[in-house]
Amino acid sequence: MDTQQKKKLAWQLPFLALLIVGTILIVRQQQPLPYQRCQGSIFGTTYTVTYQHADDLQKDIVSRLQQVDSALSMFNKESVISNINHNRSMRPNKMFLDVFKLAQQIAADTDGAFDITVAPLVNAWGFGFQQNEHPGQHTIDSLMRFVGYQKVNFDGENMVKQDPRVMLDCSAIAKGYGADQVARLLDARGVENYCVEIGGEVVTRGISSKRVPWKIGVTKPTDEPQDGGEIQAVLNITDRAMATSGNYRNFYVKDGKRYAHTIDPKTGTPVQHNILSATVLAERCAVADAYATSFMVMGLERTRQLLNKHPELMVYLIYDDHGENRVWFSPSLKDKIQE
Hints:
The protein is an alpha+beta fold.
């Protein structure tokens, strides 16, 4: 090999190597990223996060959920809400304040149907973080004296209670807020396709691994659901949050009467009207979560009246009509219901 051929080869080899590397990179970019799954337990329930990304984000997801738990979990003795409930001096953090302000806003909008000060009543009826006996009317009347969302506020520095016995319970909004926080984390990591589910509350973006919009089932209300319950309807949703509240699973029967876990803050007793489950679609899961609980308290007619003010909410209600289950849903939801 003469000198000229050696020089020519010396120039061609780096070019060929660069061409090979470039081709490999292009091929990798054209291959779809894998869908990954992260599962675990939080807030006394389970979560599943499915997302499309090259990296394993489980550590970041768990860390974000633990931050929410540290702010809002009544089962965490060191959480912000636990310290407030025990009247310990603690400046609330941003996560707690975000949820508190939203809860107070929705409480005012629903005329107190949503109320995070209902904790003493929830506990008294045996559905909260303290297990107590079935309460009598005298107990209910006593507890009602320090239940009411107007009886607690934030003064810019600390939480201020009208009565030290006021207790907060964010369980009807915390799961939704946790799902929002994980979704925000995934958005920041550039994840375009994901589904975050915490205890049935869901946030979706983009498409599933089947390259179609995310499909979420609404469970048919039954007293004894088998294998997770029969599906009443399937909703095609994406870029939306969805939450469902229902009295058909968390209840007990005493002296032949059924008592469900949703407590009406105005009466201090479990709700007795005909809505069996309320599913709400909204931009934020915390909003959907809180309104789903509100609608369970408000009943069918009051819910429909309130929805006139909130065209941004889409609602799917299952209610009892003299022993037969019937469905009412927002007209804007019609195209998202899979036949």
